[in-house]
Design a protein that fits this description.
Pfam families: PNP_UDP_1 (PF01048). 31% of the residues lie in helices and 25% in strands. The chain has 265 residues and is α/β, with parallel strands linked by helices.
Length: 265
């Protein structure tokens, strides 16, 4: 992380981001709103993992949104790629070393509610770690005992709601359940998730929330709904559907986040 931070400080002219943003599948449109953008491939940054998932660019984009310095991580490495919940520790720790105060996480997810249709946006208010995995397994200190009672920052959530209202963009809210993937869930698992109180399901984000709180970053997160859960419509699920539908809700989420960040400049 230190080597990555030093390299990026030199390449970015000392830019100190207030926000770090992680983009999920098909959500790369947000980088279009970054002014004075500097793009660096993950492959060129020491210790950064490179994803092999289609729809993830695998590059760091630094610049400003509404005059606010940000670093956008366009693409993530998932647990299911290597069986490693700790895969995003390097990038998130590097953001902290560069001065970031807040991490905004985005993902594509399956809806468990009829009123959260594909193309809509759901702010994550809490999560269920159904996988049982943690990126803090193996940390050799009491710092590993991270509290998650207020994992999702209430002030940031209020700011996101205010931005959505100002833009007249419908914004749902709910609980995200993390399944390990890469296979999609079964209809029985979706029924279980609904009984347990989940509103959406996906294959990312939760390890990053845990890492962000470990590093002392405030967290906000949102899902772009790309499909209904298995068994809800009778249709089979696919990653093609995720990539096709993500840009629809992604444009809405990008507008909300740009407005929120600009309003807090």
């Amino acid at each position: 992380m230190t080597a990555a931070a030093e390299m990026l400080k030199a390449r970015l002219g000392g830019l100190a981001p207030r926000y770090g943003i992680v983009l999920g599948s098909g959500l790369g449109s947000l980088v279009e709103g970054v002014a004075d953008a500097v793009r660096i491939s993950y492959a060129d940054i020491p210790g950064f993992p490179v994803s092999a998932v289609s729809g993830h660019a695998g590059e760091l984009v630094a610049g400003k949104i509404g005059g606010v310095p940000v670093i956008v991580l366009s693409g993530r490495v998932h647990y299911y790629e290597r069986g490693d919940a700790n895969a995003m520790r390097g990038p998130i720790g590097t953001l902290k070393l560069l001065g970031a105060e807040t991490l905004i996480l985005t993902n594509s997810a399956g809806s468990l509610r009829e009123d959260l249709a594909p193309g809509s946006v759901m702010m994550i208010t809490d999560h269920i770690n159904f996988s049982g995995e943690s990126p803090l397994i193996g940390v050799d200190s009491d710092a590993r005992f991270v509290g998650l009672t207020a994992a999702y920052d209430a002030e940031l959530a209020d700011a996101i709601r205010a931005a959505a209202i100002k833009l007249d963009i419908p914004l749902g809210a709910g609980v995200y359940m993390w399944f390990s993937g890469p296979n999609f869930e079964t209809p029985a698992e979706i029924r279980m998730a609904r009984i347990l109180g989940a509103d959406a399901v996906g294959m990312s984000t939760v390890p990053e929330v845990i890492l962000a709180r470990f590093f002392g970053l405030k967290v906000a997160a949102a899902s772009v709904i790309t499909n209904y859960g298995a068994g809800m419509t009778g249709a089979e699920l696919s990653h093609h559907e995720t990539k096709d539908m993500a840009p629809v809700g992604g444009q809405r989420l990008a507008a909300i986040l740009k407005e929120m960040i600009s309003a807090r400049s």
